[in-house]
Amino acid sequence: MATKPMRIRASTKDGVTEVKALIAHEMETGQRKDANGAVIPAWFITELTASHNGKVVLASEFGTAISKNPYLAFKFKGGAAGDKVAITWKDNKGETRTDEAAIG
Amino acid sequence: MKKISTLAVLLLALPAAWAGSEDTYAEFKAMMDRSFKTNGIAAKHRMYQLDFQKSCSQEKQPPKAEMARIEAEQLKTIRYPADGKYFGDWKQGEKIATSGRGLTWTDKTPHDNGGGCYNCHQMSHHEVSYGTIGPSLLEYGKVRGSTDEIIKYTWGKIYNAKAFNACSNMPRNGDAEILTEQQMKHLMAFLFDPASPVNKK
Amino acid sequence: MVNPQKYIVLALAATLGSLPLGASASDKLLDGINEYREALADGNPSELVAAEGEELWKTPRGPKNASLEKCDLGLGAGVVKGASAQLPRFFKDTGKVQDLETRLMTCMETLQGLDPKAVVEAKWLKGEKEKMAALVAYVVTESNGQKIKVDTRHPEMKKMYELGKLAFYYRTGPMDFSCATCHGDQGKRIRMQELPDLRTQEGAAAGWGSWPAYRVSNGQFWTMQHRLNDCYRQQRTAEPIYGSDVTIALSVYLAATANGGKVVTPGIKR
Lengths: 104, 201, 270
Prior knowledge:
The structure holds 3 protein chains of 3 kinds.
Chain A: E1 7-13, E2 16-22, E3 45-52, E4 55-61, E5 71-77, E6 84-91, E7 96-102
Antiparallel strand pairs in A: 1-2, 2-5, 3-4, 3-6, 6-7
Chain B: H1 2-18, H2 22-35, E1 36-37, H3 51-55, H4 64-75, H5 90-98, H6 117-120, H7 140-144, H8 148-159, H9 181-192
Chain C: H1 4-18, H2 23-41, H3 46-58, E1 89-91, E2 96-98, H4 100-112, H5 116-121, H6 127-141, H7 155-168, H8 179-183, E3 188-190, E4 193-195, H9 201-208, E5 213-215, E6 220-222, H10 224-235, E7 239-240, H11 245-258, E8 267-269
Parallel strand pairs in C: 5-8
Antiparallel strand pairs in C: 1-2, 3-4, 5-6
Helix pairs in contact in C: 1-2, 3-6, 7-11, 9-11
């Protein structure tokens, strides 16, 4: 199954960059059942990292308590307009995806 | 006699809702007929109105005389418990009051419906997620006491609310076979039992 | 980071723990829910659906291998900006009043050669209905911030308004419900859900203006057709057919009543 693109926005003010990202993912817990009573297999992001010009600024572990299509917002020191911010996730099925955006 | 009263309903209902346009109403009926389909237990015939439903399908309530006529007719539908026992188990009553399930096209059977009471009424001291479409029933038994009269009235209200207010928003739980007699007895206990959280803090 | 599921649990727990029970507890609970909604608004996942829709709009599909870029939603071929704020409307080419979804089906049929039946018969959020939802998300995003401005001057619009109003008050089924049972009074709630009074301009604007919407509780994007369908499910009626006249008539009644109100689509709901 093809992964879907994230929406990433980043802006910088007074030396601090704020990143807002919407991540398209089912985040299925593995504890729900479908209409026929069959368990829907778990499918969720396990790790997520964000980098600024190739340097990691956020590393996190994700789990099943996080909603479908999660929204993530964080700030880091530094960053200038035009710099690249990239976000990469990995899920329990081994899928991975990276998207990037320029700081506006 | 029945036909005459139906006609009267029609005539009374017409002017308020569609400014004398019988054509519009015929068109409306045709539109409703072609716009709906049976899905599961939700059959197409559910779209065909009962006389009183039609009278109550306007911006304003029908005139007083018409309301009284409907109420008298609906009152006749009420069946009181044959064994004279009005009260079941309040704990089961609470579950029925809490459940809003049943009778939709995603429900499988028509036999284990909820009462959906909390959708519209405040009831117990501990449930804060209640609706406000109907009046608060908090401390129902404590406030009203449990005379034969109030017990009989309450049973009737649960069984067919239209007997007391022709265009009430409340479903006819007994008359429309939404709840069983036993389920209504449980609800009665939930409302009246001094140990029920409706009455006890 | 914001985690919606945890957030609501915490918000509810905090409110429940610190307050006496009764009416004020309910009010505080509602405040908590509204606060939660605001927290969500910043990261409305509809954006993800809209992005898919935009791509789908521009991608050639169907037997005619054409995109929807020449679709006329009422403001001229290919104009998407502001289009959904003026729908439903009467369309000369079809001779019908159409809402966004039935109009998109017309475009899919005429431009792409796709059979609208595939949309009508698909399950919600699956197959062609999933694609429809994405297209809708894209189109309605382009009307965000605009004013609802539905033109009711055409006789067919006037007729649909009248039929929609009749449908709004039509009580039927085993529970004797109509739309007005829940949406015909001011300041009411069903459980903790506040109910807009759809008879009034303010209430209709709040309802019509904030759907289609993303529902955080189930992670689903619902179109207006989906919203109306579920209203009827809860009324315990038979099922309205997708795109049927009753859904268009009700939409005209709601949109016309809401005229002048603000479009905040796609909305975000708990």
